[in-house]
Amino acid sequence: MQNEKTDAADCGAPKRPRTTAGGLYAYANQQHDGEDETTETGGYSIERDALECGICFMPFQAEIYMCNNGHAACGSCCAGMHRACPSCRQPIGDIRCRPLEKAVAAISSPCKFRVSGCMKILGYTERRSHEASCPHAPCRCPFDGCYYQGSMLYHHIQEEHATDGVDVAIRRCTAVTLHRSKPFHVLLNRGGTRVFVLPNGGDVPMGRSLSLVTVGPPPLPPPPPQRGTPYAIKVGAVDGLDQLSISGTIPRVRCVQGFEAKSFLFVPDAYWGSSGTIDVAVTIG
Length: 285
Ligand SMILES: [Zn+2]
Ligand SMILES: [Zn+2]
Ligand SMILES: [Zn+2]
Ligand SMILES: [Zn+2]
Known about the structure:
single chain, mainly beta, Herpes Virus-1, Apoptosis, Tumor Necrosis Factor Receptor Associated Protein 2, Chain A, 7-stranded mixed β-sheet, 4-stranded antiparallel β-sheet, disordered N terminus, binds zinc ion, metal-binding
């Protein structure tokens, strides 16, 4: 039988707002719209770890439990610890911490990408998953020396780096000439807004590594039936050397700097010839 005691000393007790320099959640002048009433707070801050689970050290999930000594943790974390509190070894997982659940449920604040156009007001427990896939999260321009970050990367590249982008059509084969000395080539989805980057990595000896990645936010829900956009890259046979090819699904990132491809096409030095270029056939979609 479930014991729902809620009067432990350090659970749900009112805490004086603290003003330490780091690790604060700040909520200033939030407006909470209900059906019958509107409440405005005067602004307050909460120490970050006051709202984090004592087991996973992440923001609490919706159901919060506590041990007899008032140590609090998410329900799923209690199960993972075989219902033993990691702080005091008392049983944990039977007593709901209702005051803390209530406090967490009452917290809402705008998405951190509001300046980029997201107008969502998020509850505490949904913030992390939303911001990880927010369509307004900024994407960074791949070109060296350019510090653009925003949600209009396609238009930015067309305006600022027009001569460096190659138009590609979806579900069509596009011929692209790659220069050995260029660390990547940018492909722009003609008639759409997607940006693809074809890294030409120098991280392998005696050749180059070709891969493909798209720079952009995740697709809006509902998710597409397939896991990602398929692609194929082919390097034609030259001087008795065989054709090379790779295919797969295109990973998606918001920032290509630091991207490491999980799979790539190795193009040995002999393919690049004296011109330092190769022609590749790229098919996306
Ligand atoms: Zn947890
Ligand atoms: Zn405990
Ligand atoms: Zn958002
Ligand atoms: Zn740029």
